[in-house]
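Blinded run. Sample ID left blank on purpose so nobody reads anything into the name before looking at the predicted structure. Input follows.
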Amino acid sequence: MGSRTQYFNLSGPVHMTSTDWNNTQHRTSVAASLVQGVYILERDRQHHRQDLQALAPPWWDFFNFQLYQVLVDDSDFSIFGAIYEFKFPINTFERLHPPRYVVAFRGTLTDPDTRLQDLKLDFQFVFIQTRLQNSSRVKKALNVIQELVHNAGAENVWLAGHSLGAAIALVVGRNLIKMGFGLESYLFNSPFSAPPLEQIKNDKVKQGARIVGSVIKAGLSTVLTGHRQRPEEEDEAFTVLSGWTPYLFVNRDDPICSEYIGYFEHRETMLSIGAAGIGKLATQNSVGSIVTCALGYNTEAYHLLPTACLVINMSESQTITQAHGVEQWWTQSFNWQSKIHKY
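Blinded prediction complete.
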């Protein structure tokens, strides 16, 4: 027996009697449900639930997808991702049509089978991002997605992930756009690798801390890494990523991802106070990426994005677990606010 959240008919978006592919909330619900399908696939594996006992299939069957391939971690043999294929022919002449394939990644599971590897990757994304970039999960995901894009076209492939899975999708998406492929992407509660200043309630203190942080990052970037990479080269490399506009879903009450709100709002603040140059340097770099670059390593701040459609869940969350959960993104009642931020 699984928990209530594992049963599609008890906690899934059963209010969607049909899928309107022109409806952004419907597309979001589909992406979030397919991510949940990966979580349940791994739960089924751990609890040896097969065939009629398996709880995962309804999470994709309901939307007329079939399981095309599972992605297995080389270290702990857990299922960390899945590729879903739409069952029916697709009218690709319609601008908003179902994707032919969706590649989805789960987040951290604290079960004994997965805890060690998942937490190790969480640590790497926060503190040593190059390790995540070079991890077997990212390499395996990138290889299979490149093949899908080659066979089906980038416009027919979606990326989706939650928490650690969103971090993996983010790293993969950044790599793909550098190759010229911008995939429609749904990143739920992706970790922001910096202190969660958004959790400070006093707006003046919060804004002051961000301005000081920007000045420090800009200064460090100029002093420590200026001799390794000219600012215009750094700016050009970051601008390349602007061709990709992922949907970035965050909750104000979630300290893991909420700093994305301040990250994008602060860029506008720096522009309005006449500090656009400092803001540009700060928006491309984290303290960690600056320091490691100064030590001679070519690193990127993989969590930073020039462009995104930021979707904020404005509904009040009772707990951090609720604020960070993937299930909030398919509920009928959540109150969202969205804005496209361009570099």
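Unblinding after everyone has recorded impressions. The mean pLDDT is 86.
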